[in-house]
Amino acid sequence: MINIILAILSTAGALAILFASIGILRMPDFYLRLSVTVKASSLGVGLLLICAAIMFPDDASVTTKSIAIIFFLFITAPIAAHMIGRAAYFTGIPLWKGTIVDELDGMYNKETHELKSDPKDAIHKSTGKEDDQIAETDEETR
Amino acid sequence: MELLLIIVLGLLYAGGVYFILRRSMVKLLLGIMLLGSATNILIFVLGSIVKGSPPVIDADHDTFSGIYADPVPQALILTAIVISFALTAFAIVLLKRVYALVQTDDLDNLNTPEEEDI
Amino acid sequence: MIKNFLMNLLLSFIWVALTGTLSYSSFVFGFILGFFVLWIMNRNEEDRRYFYRLPKIFSFVFYFLYLVLKANIQVAYDVITPKYFFRPGIVRYPMNTESDFEINVLSTLISLTPGTLILDVSEDKKALYIHVMYLTDPEAFINELKTGMERRLLEILR
Amino acid sequence: MTLGTYFDFVILPILTISVILVFIRLFRGPAIVDRVIALDLIITIGIGIITVYSIRQNQKVLLDVAIILALIAFLGTIAFSYYIEKQKDD
Amino acid sequence: MLFTILSGLIVSLLLLPFGRMLKSKQRILLVVLPAALFLFYLQYIPAVSSGRFLLQSTPWIPSLATNLDFRLDGLSLLFALLITGIGTAIFFYARAYLKDHPYFNRFFGYLCLFMSAMLGIVLADNIFLLFVFWELTSISSFFLIGFNNNDPASRKSAITALTITGMGGFFLLAGLILLGNISGTYTISELIHSRNIIIHHPLYPLVLGLLCMGAFTKSAQFPFHFWLPGAMKAPTPVSAYLHSATMVKAGIYLLARFNPILGGTDLWSNTLMIAGGFTMLYAAFHSLLRTDLKSILAYSTISALGILTFLIGLGTREAVIAASVFILVHALYKATLFLVTGIIDHEAHTRDITRLAGLRKVLLPVAIAGLLAAISSAGVPLTFGFIGKDLIYEATLHAGASLSFILTALAIATNTGLVAAGFMAGIKPFSGKLPVEFEKIHLPSASLWLPPLILAVAGLIFGCIPGIAGQLFSLQAANAIFGSDTQLHLKLWHGFNLVLLLSLATLAAGTFLYYINKPSGKKQHFIQKFNPLSPEFALNRFANGIFGFSTWYTGKFHNGYLRSYHLKILLFAEMLLAYKLWLSGPIKIDFYGLAMLSIYEIAVVVILIGALVMMILTQSRLTAVVSMSIIGYCTCLMFVFYSAPDLAMTQFTIDTLTTVLFVLVLYKLPPFLNLATTWERYRDIAVSLGFGVILSLVALQVHHEAISTQTSEFYANNSYILAKGKNVVNVILVDFRGIDTMFETVVLSIAAIGVYSLLRLRLKTSEKE
Amino acid sequence: MTGNHILASVFIHLFIAIFQLIAWRKTVTQRILSVGGALVGLIIAIVLFQQVYLHGTYTLNAANWAAPFGIVFAADLLSATMVLLTSIAGFAVSIFSSTGISRQRMLYGYFPIFHFLLMGLNGAFLTGDIFNLYVWFEVIIISSFVLMTLGGRKQQLEGAVKYMAMNILASMFFLTGIGILYGITGSLNMADLSTKIQEVENRSLVGITSVFFILGFGIKSAVFPLYFWLPSSYHTPPSAVAATFGGLLTKVGIYAMLRVNSLIFIPDDFTRKLLMTIAVLTILTGAFGALIKTSVRRLFSYLIVCHIGFMVGGIAMFTKVALIGTVFYLIHDIMVKTNMFLIAGLIRQLRGTMSMEKLGGLYREYPKISLLIAIVLFSLVGIPPLSGFWPKIYLFRESFSQHQYVYIAALITGSLATLYVIAKMWAEAFWKETPQGIAVEDQFAPLPVYRKILLVLPIGILGVVSVYIGINAETIIQVADRIANELIDTSSYIKAVLKN
Amino acid sequence: MRSIILQTATRYLLPILLLFSIFLLLRGHYYPGGGFVGGLVASIAFVLHSFTNGTDATMKLLGRKPLSLIPIGLGISAFSVILPLFFGLPPMTGLWVQEKFPLIGLIGSSLFFDIGVYLVVIGVVLTILFTISLTDD
Ligand code: NA
Ligand code: NA
Fold first, then answer.
1. pLDDT at A116 over 80
2. F with C: 3 or more CB pairs under 8 Å?
3. Which is it for the CA torsion F417, F418, F422, F425, positive or negative?
4. C–B touching, 3+ CB–CB pairs within 8 Å
5. Which residue range is the domain that position F309 belongs to?
6. How many structural domains are present in chain D?
7. Which end of chain A is more exposed for a tag (fewer CB within 10 A), N or C?
8. Do A113 and G3 touch (CB under 8 A)?
9. Ligand with smallest separation from the Cα of E709
10. Contacts of E349 (CB under 8 A, 6+ apart)
11. Contact B33, D41 (CB under 8 A)
12. pTM over 0.90, yes/no
């Protein structure tokens, strides 16, 4: 019984990781790659850690450690994603051409990196193409 | 598995050497770091390598019951790693200062002629 | 509320001590046992927030896991099939949160849900900018988030 | 098939393939941010591999390494993003 | 004897720093030293001339068999008396000569140092001790030649002299040590017992060559003679003392001293005779063409030294006698001539022979001294020079049937030149009409003219009563040189014989030469055209060659390019290692045992290699850093797989921190430039792959070697029981090998302080060290 | 004999440095601590030397673990001598630094690092464990990096980059060698290795291992063709620093060669030939370089290289006589080379430059100081009876016995080049008048008397030591003789360490 | 680089990391860990803090220059190394308190040694990183 649960959990975990990997390889732009990978991998690793916790039932420390790792992963991964995503946007990494809307466009103060919340404050609405980060071709994002 | 490590260390040595033969200071640094890793792996591989048996005695035993990895190379490498870190950190900062002074990453520009000696 | 929680913890430790096995299972069992004991004891008290918040947390966790699972499968499907189904976009999401902690938790959770990713928080802490993979209509997406995740979360936190 | 062999011949290979796939992304880039997230993902998968490995070897001390990875890995990403942003300024 | 040497050294060491305290009236005290020493050595004449000798030994460095061994025999005494006697005259003279010189004290300091060193050479009975003093004479000579140190020519001459004599010194040292090695003793007087071993040793030519190098450089034999004319930059008393009477004779002394030990072989004779013979003729000829008084004297000195070398080389009884007498003869008249020259220079402010004339009218006592010295040098009967010349001819005539004619002719030619040179120096300035410009010259104080006069008169006295002089000074010296009794007995009159005839002929020819040879700038100019053939020129060319080569070589190797240094170091390493590997034979690889691989291990390695490749190919620094991180993390995973959790943890944290550090620093730097040519790139790839392959092969080799597990077993077994820890690695780090860790933290601390100061400390440009 | 005190010379400097770190930015305290501490260190070293001389090798089993399991420190006569020399040089440099180093540098940790360096040197000389030696080497190089860069002038940094790169390369070779050594023997204790290495069946592996040590120590001691870092950098740091480096750092390499060659890799025929070739080329390289340099410190740098060759030649011959020569030369060289760079510093103070072309007039203005310097210079040249002379006799003697004529020629060439360049330097810097148009910055004259003394005193101390070494060569020979004996016959060392 | 999310997260990550570092420090003798890794983790915690809140804020949090931790740490280690000398034992010899402490286990001089190492590592890493980030070239 336990073995079956373990097999299921571990398979799910491994597959989640696999999908994340395929995702990071296949997705057409940076933001999509980021989006796909962060959680799939956290989920996958989390599942594997639960397996570990179950595998060593007599040892509370393993369970504690597993929980701790999951906890850390779940709080750090989104933060890391947020930081790198924002940096990417800032350095002008283009969005995929199929992106339908970019409400972030023009909201940053380029000098101070300050981000506004009100669309009316936008320094520059995307009227000119040169400032638009949405790519026109696939090549731009590869 | 030793063979694999041996190949790895050879490549790391080769990479390190290649990098220290470049003109860029950053590459020099990277080369030094690679050589450091290579040496660590060399030391590691020359001890007895065992999979999955860290040299940590079980909670309920006083000595090892089964096989265990040779702890000595590990301790040596630990020391070496920390020392390389110290050196690397200092080297990185040196790089920063040199860059600030000569405005170049090119090692060939580090030749103030004898005439300018004090 | 804190008092109840501590009491519950104490009870579970006592249970562990009684059974003499220091393990997670006995602790969790002791905690559940203690919860029910306390719940029964406190049926007539004024402050019973503790007793309905805990189940809410559980239900939120399951809700969240459900979201994660669902979206993961969606993404997985998209990833392994040759054709792209997604329609990505960056959406400005106006928040109702008050504290930094709430923002933090909310954004973490949003990011952990596949398909959505926080890119940044505005300086005045009023808006999140979210990268969404499957964006049919920004308004609909904002509404769903507002009534779903954010509402449930704030219910627990406040 | 025992659970052990299942781990050895299914789970670990899947993880291995994943990590190699991610590395391909890392190799290809194109932008530095792509590499950074690939690196981050490799470390995360590394945690997974360590977990499975420690299960297989019945060595729970190895999990300690996983904790460290989980705790610290993101500092690298933070550092990279910090300076990718900063570099843009200069 | 030791105290005689030490006294000079001590006086010197006191004079150099504290000499300024000496008031000018107290300076006469300085003369007391050589005078006292002279008297001291005089008292040994009776003992020594009766064939005894004095020994003194004080332990110094017994391990090297180098003790303060002194031995006073005839040869030593002759030199000791010369050194102290002429020294007295010189000291007396110099006191007046340099009266107002600001560095008077230094001058006497050097002079005392020299005198002691010279005494040391002639008294030492130990080859190392001899060498010690030998070098001290070079040093004091260096300081004295460079005494007028504002004059670039003076400095240059000092360096040249020191370099030449120093070079000779090193050869001499080598030769002496070799001699000691062969004979097993370092005591000079004992070496004679090993004579047979030495002269039949296969290395005998080497010994001889090295010793001769020492002697010839010191005694200015061709082709090393040219430092001596240069040394005339020194104040004249120095020239008189060092560069004619004493120091240059150190080489002669050496040859004389070693004649009984090394001499008597064809090699010895030929070497010395050829060198000496050529030198004497060459220098005599050159002396005729000079216009500078001191130059004339310098060349005639060289010539005289050549004669002495030649005579020792000849080595017959007569030759040795001649040498032992001629040493004294030459010292007396040459010192006189120098001192006379000094007075002329001092008063007339010129030494140009073409301008000097008629000075007898203003400097009569000086003129007398000059005349006496000149006739002595010419060998006019009743002078000591006459005796010396006689003996030389005696020697050449008895050289043996085939040689005697050539050698005698050689001697005559040389002596003819020397006669003329002597007249030029001692007579020419005083004869003729006094030019107007010199009319104002007054006779200087007796302190100046008395010493040369006394020396000249001494020459005359010895010439008149040669028997006494020979008995007292030369007999035992000759015996020492010859190695057995020479039965030397000097007589004023040998009757009319071939020798006398030759002497007179020489005198006549010399006088004739003196009259027809008018030195002029033109002639000097003419002879300078032959400079490219001169050894000095050749040596200069050689030196320039050395400098050119040094510049090229140093620039080639130490070219300023770090990568080229690395390349050289690595190529050297590869060569050595490859050679050693090749020696070790075929390499066994146990693929089965080594290659039990799992897929994840392979994957990690593949990624590591990929990262390495990426790192090499990328143009972006940040990508390179990412690759570095990947390599680090892969290593970390390896450590996990192979049971090293502590390593993995540390490697991982440190890698992360390094990454942080890198990005903190790197973002300002420019991207990599591709600066290498394709050829360089391929070369570097070859070198680096070579290194990698070699290291891998080494690792493979080592891996096959069974390891002793004694140490690790001890740690494993006692980690908990004795050291109370279960993580053996940690126990090693904090207990078994805790000292390593302690000082590794020091390394870290130093690095941190270094970083702090490197970034914070900004020296102002005005800041000194 | 067991002696827990033999590490005192290490710990004294450790604690001085720690206290100085606590007294961060308090330069007066640091100075007093430095000079006082260095004096105590010197006394400790003298006592240790005396004890070792009288009673033989002392050992200390760190952490009380028996050899070969723990780290063993051993003070045999060679170690004690090296510690003594380090302490003398350290004391002198410490005094010089107290006024010769700018306050700015003191504020940023000059003194603690200096004492860490001395600590590292003493540790390296005392340890009996090969890996521990590596740690000491690292302490030495990292502190030398810091001292090299302290102040951060452009030239300093340029030199430091090369210095660092090649020294790290040396450490890499050394560490690789240690790894292999452990791989074939399983031991790290040098005395233990001495026996274990003989049990290794694959002798060619031992040869390969020795190559790594030759490379590592070769770079450290700056032999041809590994010397490049030295002339690239030694002319750049402050003189007090250069003095410590010039006197001691390369000699650690020589010390290590002596130690390792005597205990672990007894030189075989190939190694001897190799070392001899290296020695000859090193001498020539140093000599050629010195001939053309006009900056005093660049000149001295090449002279260091040149004279290292003398010692390597002695090691190559590896007989008792040769080793006496090498050890004696080592003793002489440490004292003199330290002093040379202090002199360079003093010249800098006197004239504001170290370039011979710009120098001049020193003898006229400072006759007494000049004479003091002259004595040191002559010691360097090996003018008898000063200190450089006696060891050469041994080297000559042995090379004649072994028919090493090329080495003899190199010895003569090297000595002659030294003589020439020193004479030239004397003529240029001391005799010559300051050239026209060069403004003399005499920073010495305005100093208060006590600071003048602090600058000249260390040169005097080292000069006196040099003269003592020369005049009382017998004592030094006795010491060198015993050291050479210990190096040839290591059984007493091994016995003392392994206690069997 | 201001980010509310990161700042908030750091607020609770910092104590967690510090706690974890002490955990690693204390159990090093029995399990993987020790003063080095502990110190590295602790310094990473502060580095993280400095990333989020600026180096000045972290300095304020520490209350002192990180450089001053170095002599303290070195002093502790060095003292625990020479302590055995006062008992007539060679330096570095482990001295142990006889009683076993709960959770930590036996307390001996090696623990103090490790604490010294821990402090040194923190001091070193922070000195290096903070100096860099506070210096502009
Ligand atoms: Na890294
Ligand atoms: Na092995």
1. no
2. no
3. positive
4. no
5. 8-498
6. 1
7. N
8. no
9. 2
10. none
11. no
12. yes
Which residue's entry shows tokens 């002074």? B101
Judge residue E683's burial from the number of C-beta atoms within 10 Å of its C-beta, 0-12 exposed, 13-18 middle, 19 or more buried. middle
Q: Which residues in chain D have Cβ-Cβ distances shorter than 8 Å to A112?
A: none
Average pLDDT value for residue range E559-569: 94
H-state helical runs in chain C? 2-19, 24-41, 49-80, 100-112, 138-145, 151-157
CB contacts < 8 A, A to D, total 164
**Structural domain harbouring G129:** 4-134
Return the CATH class of domain C57-157: alpha beta
Provide, as residue numbers in chain G, all residues whose Cβ is less than 8 Å from the Cβ of F128: none
> For residue E737, how far is its CA from the centre of ligand 2 (angstroms)?
21
Report the distance separating Cα E13 and Cα E31, nearest Å: 16
Domain boundary assignment for chain A? 2-91, 94-142
Dump pLDDT digits (tens) for E670-704: 777 777 889 999 999 999 999 999 999 999 888 88
Question: Could you report the per-residue pLDDT of E479-493, keeping only the tens digit for each?
Answer: 888 888 888 888 777
**Per-residue b/e over E554-565, b at no fewer than 16 CB within 10 Å?**
beebbebbbbbb
Within a domain: F1:
no
Please check whether residue F3 lies inside any domain of the structure: no
Neighbour subunits, E (≥3 Cβ pairs < 8 A): B, D, F, G
Segments making up each domain of chain C, as ranges: 2-47, 57-157
Give the Cα separation of F89 and F82 in Å (integer).
10
Closest CA to F115 of F18, F40, F237, F253: F18
C-beta separation of E369 from E453 below 8 A? yes
β-strand partners of A108: A115
Residue E250's pLDDT band, with cuts at 50, 70 and 90, is very high
Tokens of E392: 């030389």
> Distance, in angstroms, between F310 CA and closest chain E CA?
15
Contact assignment for G5 to C125 by CB distance below 8 Å: no
Which among E306, E163, E304 is positioned nearest to E230, based on CA atoms?
E163
Q: What is the total count of domains within chain F?
A: 1
Which ligand neighbours the alpha carbon of B72 most closely? 2
Choose the closest CB to G90 out of F15, F22, F64. Answer: F64
| CB environment C24-46: b (16+ within 10 A), e (fewer) | bebbeebbeebbeebbeeeeeee
The CATH number of domain B2-53+67-111, selected from 1.20.58.100, 1.10.287.3510, 1.20.1290.10, 1.10.1240.10: 1.10.287.3510
Nearest CA in chain D to G24: D64
Q: Which residues of chain A make contact with C88, given a CB cutoff of 8 A?
A: 29, 31-32, 35, 95-96, 98-100
What is residue E238's predicted lDDT score, i.e. its pLDDT? 92
Q: One digit per residue, pLDDT tens: chain G, 137 residues?
A: 678 888 888 888 898 889 989 989 988 888 888 899 999 999 999 999 998 888 899 999 988 889 999 999 999 999 999 999 999 999 988 888 777 776 666 788 888 999 999 999 999 999 999 998 888 76
Cα R_g (chain A), whole angstroms: 20
Return the bridge partners of C90, or none. Answer: A102, C131
Distance E660 CA to ligand 1 centre (A): 7
**Bond prior to F225 in cis (omega within 30° of 0):** yes
H helix runs in chain A, sequence order: 2-26, 30-55, 60-90, 138-141
Which residues, at least 6 apart from G63, have a Cβ–Cβ distance to it below 8 Å?
none
Measure the CA–CA gap between E372 and C111, rounded to whole angstroms. 118
Distance from CA of E746 to the nearest CA of F (A): 7
User: Which residue from G1, G2, G9 is facing A75, i.e. has the nearest CB?
Assistant: G9
Question: What is the CA(A75)–ligand 1 centre distance, in A?
Answer: 22
Looking up tokens 């796909």, which residue turns up? A36
| Interchain CB contact of G1 with A (< 8 Å) | yes
* For the CA of B2, the nearest ligand: 2
Q: What is the mean pLDDT of residues F308-316?
A: 96
